[in-house]
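User: Hey, my collaborator sent me this sequence without any context and asked if I could get a structure. I don't really work with proteins. Can you help?
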Amino acid sequence: MLIERLARVRFAFLLMVSLVMGMMSSDFVAVAQVDDPLAAPLESARRKRDPGQLESLRTQLEQRLSQNPNDAVGQYELATVESFLADVAEMRKDKKAAATAVDKAIEAAQRSVQLNDKSADAHSLLADLYGRKIGLSGGMFAGPRFGPKANEENKRAMALDDKNPRVWASTGRKYLMSPKAFGGDTSKAIECFKKSLTLDPNQDETWVWLAKAYDKQSDKANAREAIQHALQLNPRSQWAQETSKSLEK
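Assistant: No problem. I've predicted the 3D structure and written it out in C-alpha coordinate form, which is a compact way to encode the shape of the chain:
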Protein backbone atom coordinates (compact mmCIF):
# COMPACT_ATOMS: atom_id res chain seq x y z
CA MET A 1 0.00 0.00 0.00
CA LEU A 2 2.80 2.41 0.90
CA ILE A 3 4.58 1.77 -2.40
CA GLU A 4 1.39 2.37 -4.36
CA ARG A 5 0.73 5.58 -2.44
CA LEU A 6 4.27 6.85 -3.13
CA ALA A 7 3.87 6.00 -6.82
CA ARG A 8 0.64 8.01 -6.99
CA VAL A 9 2.30 10.98 -5.26
CA ARG A 10 5.25 10.85 -7.67
CA PHE A 11 2.92 10.70 -10.68
CA ALA A 12 0.93 13.69 -9.41
CA PHE A 13 4.16 15.65 -8.86
CA LEU A 14 5.44 14.89 -12.38
CA LEU A 15 2.08 15.85 -13.85
CA MET A 16 2.16 19.17 -12.00
CA VAL A 17 5.72 19.86 -13.17
CA SER A 18 4.84 19.06 -16.78
CA LEU A 19 1.86 21.43 -16.67
CA VAL A 20 3.96 24.23 -15.19
CA MET A 21 6.73 23.70 -17.74
CA GLY A 22 4.18 23.79 -20.54
CA MET A 23 2.78 27.11 -19.28
CA MET A 24 6.28 28.62 -18.92
CA SER A 25 7.68 27.40 -22.23
CA SER A 26 8.49 29.65 -25.17
CA ASP A 27 7.33 29.29 -28.78
CA PHE A 28 8.13 25.64 -29.15
CA VAL A 29 8.14 22.88 -26.59
CA ALA A 30 4.86 22.12 -24.85
CA VAL A 31 4.16 18.41 -25.15
CA ALA A 32 7.75 17.32 -24.52
CA GLN A 33 8.19 15.04 -21.56
CA VAL A 34 9.67 16.45 -18.35
CA ASP A 35 12.93 14.51 -18.78
CA ASP A 36 13.06 14.60 -22.60
CA PRO A 37 16.76 15.03 -23.51
CA LEU A 38 15.82 16.66 -26.84
CA ALA A 39 13.73 19.48 -25.33
CA ALA A 40 16.66 21.90 -24.94
CA PRO A 41 18.28 21.11 -28.34
CA LEU A 42 14.90 21.56 -30.02
CA GLU A 43 14.43 24.97 -28.44
CA SER A 44 17.95 25.92 -29.52
CA ALA A 45 17.17 24.75 -33.05
CA ARG A 46 13.98 26.82 -33.07
CA ARG A 47 15.88 29.94 -32.10
CA LYS A 48 18.73 29.52 -34.60
CA ARG A 49 17.24 27.46 -37.43
CA ASP A 50 20.68 25.90 -37.91
CA PRO A 51 20.44 23.33 -40.76
CA GLY A 52 23.14 21.04 -39.39
CA GLN A 53 21.58 20.95 -35.94
CA LEU A 54 18.15 20.30 -37.44
CA GLU A 55 19.42 17.44 -39.59
CA SER A 56 21.05 15.88 -36.54
CA LEU A 57 17.85 16.17 -34.53
CA ARG A 58 15.84 14.63 -37.35
CA THR A 59 18.20 11.65 -37.47
CA GLN A 60 17.97 11.17 -33.69
CA LEU A 61 14.18 11.33 -33.76
CA GLU A 62 13.90 8.95 -36.70
CA GLN A 63 16.08 6.45 -34.85
CA ARG A 64 14.00 6.87 -31.69
CA LEU A 65 10.76 6.39 -33.61
CA SER A 66 12.07 3.34 -35.46
CA GLN A 67 12.26 1.68 -32.05
CA ASN A 68 8.95 3.08 -30.80
CA PRO A 69 6.68 4.43 -33.58
CA ASN A 70 3.87 4.92 -31.02
CA ASP A 71 5.79 7.71 -29.28
CA ALA A 72 3.34 10.63 -29.67
CA VAL A 73 5.83 13.17 -28.30
CA GLY A 74 8.53 11.94 -30.65
CA GLN A 75 6.19 12.24 -33.63
CA TYR A 76 5.29 15.79 -32.56
CA GLU A 77 8.96 16.71 -32.21
CA LEU A 78 9.77 15.22 -35.62
CA ALA A 79 6.94 17.27 -37.15
CA THR A 80 8.38 20.36 -35.49
CA VAL A 81 11.90 19.69 -36.81
CA GLU A 82 10.55 19.14 -40.32
CA SER A 83 8.65 22.44 -40.08
CA PHE A 84 11.90 24.20 -39.09
CA LEU A 85 13.65 22.58 -42.06
CA ALA A 86 10.85 23.94 -44.25
CA ASP A 87 11.65 27.40 -42.87
CA VAL A 88 15.30 26.96 -43.82
CA ALA A 89 14.35 25.84 -47.33
CA GLU A 90 12.02 28.82 -47.78
CA MET A 91 14.74 31.22 -46.66
CA ARG A 92 16.92 29.65 -49.36
CA LYS A 93 14.09 30.12 -51.90
CA ASP A 94 13.93 26.33 -52.37
CA LYS A 95 10.18 25.85 -52.66
CA LYS A 96 10.44 22.18 -53.62
CA ALA A 97 12.46 21.28 -50.52
CA ALA A 98 10.12 23.34 -48.35
CA ALA A 99 7.08 21.51 -49.74
CA THR A 100 8.72 18.12 -49.12
CA ALA A 101 9.56 19.07 -45.52
CA VAL A 102 6.01 20.30 -44.89
CA ASP A 103 4.57 17.04 -46.25
CA LYS A 104 6.83 15.06 -43.89
CA ALA A 105 5.85 17.33 -41.02
CA ILE A 106 2.16 16.81 -41.74
CA GLU A 107 2.60 13.02 -41.73
CA ALA A 108 4.38 13.11 -38.35
CA ALA A 109 1.87 15.56 -36.84
CA GLN A 110 -1.03 13.40 -38.02
CA ARG A 111 0.55 10.37 -36.36
CA SER A 112 1.06 12.35 -33.16
CA VAL A 113 -2.61 13.39 -33.12
CA GLN A 114 -3.72 9.84 -33.82
CA LEU A 115 -1.64 8.61 -30.88
CA ASN A 116 -2.72 11.42 -28.54
CA ASP A 117 -5.85 13.28 -29.58
CA LYS A 118 -5.75 15.34 -26.37
CA SER A 119 -2.67 17.38 -27.30
CA ALA A 120 -3.69 20.95 -28.10
CA ASP A 121 -0.13 21.68 -29.24
CA ALA A 122 -0.15 18.87 -31.80
CA HIS A 123 -3.51 20.01 -33.19
CA SER A 124 -2.25 23.60 -33.45
CA LEU A 125 0.92 22.49 -35.19
CA LEU A 126 -1.09 20.44 -37.66
CA ALA A 127 -3.34 23.44 -38.34
CA ASP A 128 -0.29 25.59 -39.11
CA LEU A 129 1.12 22.91 -41.40
CA TYR A 130 -2.11 22.65 -43.38
CA GLY A 131 -1.97 26.42 -43.81
CA ARG A 132 1.59 26.20 -45.10
CA LYS A 133 0.57 23.43 -47.47
CA ILE A 134 -1.93 25.81 -49.05
CA GLY A 135 0.71 28.49 -49.53
CA LEU A 136 3.30 26.14 -50.99
CA SER A 137 0.76 24.52 -53.33
CA GLY A 138 -0.40 27.78 -54.86
CA GLY A 139 -3.67 27.93 -52.97
CA MET A 140 -6.17 27.57 -55.83
CA PHE A 141 -6.78 23.85 -55.43
CA ALA A 142 -5.12 23.29 -52.05
CA GLY A 143 -7.25 25.89 -50.27
CA PRO A 144 -10.58 24.07 -50.49
CA ARG A 145 -8.87 20.82 -49.48
CA PHE A 146 -6.68 21.93 -46.59
CA GLY A 147 -8.43 25.10 -45.40
CA PRO A 148 -11.30 23.26 -43.66
CA LYS A 149 -8.80 20.83 -42.13
CA ALA A 150 -6.79 23.71 -40.68
CA ASN A 151 -9.95 25.26 -39.24
CA GLU A 152 -10.99 21.98 -37.63
CA GLU A 153 -7.57 21.49 -36.06
CA ASN A 154 -7.61 25.03 -34.65
CA LYS A 155 -11.10 24.50 -33.22
CA ARG A 156 -10.06 21.21 -31.66
CA ALA A 157 -6.96 22.79 -30.12
CA MET A 158 -8.97 25.68 -28.66
CA ALA A 159 -11.55 23.29 -27.23
CA LEU A 160 -8.80 21.28 -25.57
CA ASP A 161 -6.87 24.21 -24.06
CA ASP A 162 -8.00 27.82 -24.45
CA LYS A 163 -5.25 28.95 -22.06
CA ASN A 164 -2.48 27.70 -24.32
CA PRO A 165 -0.46 30.53 -25.94
CA ARG A 166 0.47 28.39 -28.95
CA VAL A 167 -3.21 27.73 -29.65
CA TRP A 168 -3.98 31.45 -29.73
CA ALA A 169 -0.93 32.16 -31.90
CA SER A 170 -1.97 29.50 -34.41
CA THR A 171 -5.50 30.90 -34.53
CA GLY A 172 -4.03 34.35 -35.13
CA ARG A 173 -2.01 33.06 -38.07
CA LYS A 174 -5.18 31.58 -39.54
CA TYR A 175 -6.93 34.96 -39.42
CA LEU A 176 -3.87 36.79 -40.76
CA MET A 177 -3.04 34.47 -43.66
CA SER A 178 -6.55 33.55 -44.85
CA PRO A 179 -8.18 35.60 -47.64
CA LYS A 180 -10.98 37.83 -46.40
CA ALA A 181 -13.53 35.75 -48.34
CA PHE A 182 -12.46 32.71 -46.30
CA GLY A 183 -12.52 34.30 -42.86
CA GLY A 184 -9.35 36.35 -42.94
CA ASP A 185 -9.46 39.23 -40.45
CA THR A 186 -6.36 41.21 -39.48
CA SER A 187 -8.01 42.79 -36.43
CA LYS A 188 -8.94 39.37 -35.07
CA ALA A 189 -5.40 38.16 -35.82
CA ILE A 190 -3.99 40.99 -33.70
CA GLU A 191 -6.39 40.14 -30.87
CA CYS A 192 -5.28 36.50 -30.97
CA PHE A 193 -1.57 37.34 -31.02
CA LYS A 194 -2.00 39.76 -28.10
CA LYS A 195 -3.93 37.11 -26.16
CA SER A 196 -1.14 34.62 -26.83
CA LEU A 197 1.50 37.08 -25.65
CA THR A 198 -0.51 37.88 -22.53
CA LEU A 199 -0.33 34.17 -21.68
CA ASP A 200 3.38 33.96 -22.54
CA PRO A 201 5.24 37.20 -23.43
CA ASN A 202 8.48 35.32 -24.19
CA GLN A 203 7.39 34.02 -27.60
CA ASP A 204 9.73 35.86 -29.96
CA GLU A 205 8.10 34.44 -33.09
CA THR A 206 4.61 35.51 -32.02
CA TRP A 207 5.94 39.05 -31.59
CA VAL A 208 7.07 38.88 -35.23
CA TRP A 209 3.61 37.73 -36.30
CA LEU A 210 2.08 40.60 -34.34
CA ALA A 211 4.43 43.03 -36.09
CA LYS A 212 3.38 41.65 -39.46
CA ALA A 213 -0.29 42.00 -38.55
CA TYR A 214 0.18 45.63 -37.49
CA ASP A 215 2.14 46.29 -40.68
CA LYS A 216 -0.75 44.87 -42.70
CA GLN A 217 -2.93 47.53 -41.07
CA SER A 218 -0.29 50.17 -41.96
CA ASP A 219 0.36 50.69 -38.23
CA LYS A 220 4.13 51.10 -38.48
CA ALA A 221 4.60 52.41 -34.93
CA ASN A 222 3.10 49.35 -33.24
CA ALA A 223 4.74 47.05 -35.80
CA ARG A 224 8.19 48.43 -34.96
CA GLU A 225 7.50 48.16 -31.25
CA ALA A 226 6.48 44.52 -31.63
CA ILE A 227 9.52 43.62 -33.72
CA GLN A 228 11.81 45.17 -31.12
CA HIS A 229 10.31 42.83 -28.53
CA ALA A 230 11.09 39.90 -30.84
CA LEU A 231 14.70 40.99 -31.35
CA GLN A 232 15.24 41.53 -27.64
CA LEU A 233 14.08 37.95 -27.00
CA ASN A 234 15.99 36.40 -29.91
CA PRO A 235 18.60 38.71 -31.50
CA ARG A 236 19.79 35.88 -33.78
CA SER A 237 16.43 35.38 -35.45
CA GLN A 238 16.95 35.92 -39.17
CA TRP A 239 13.20 36.21 -39.65
CA ALA A 240 12.90 38.97 -37.05
CA GLN A 241 15.90 40.78 -38.55
CA GLU A 242 14.44 40.67 -42.06
CA THR A 243 11.03 41.79 -40.81
CA SER A 244 12.65 44.69 -38.95
CA LYS A 245 14.42 45.82 -42.13
CA SER A 246 11.21 45.64 -44.13
CA LEU A 247 9.48 47.92 -41.62
CA GLU A 248 12.10 50.64 -42.19
CA LYS A 249 11.29 50.93 -45.90
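In plain terms: Residues 2-24 form the longest helix (23 residues). You can pass these C-alpha coordinates on to your collaborator as they are.
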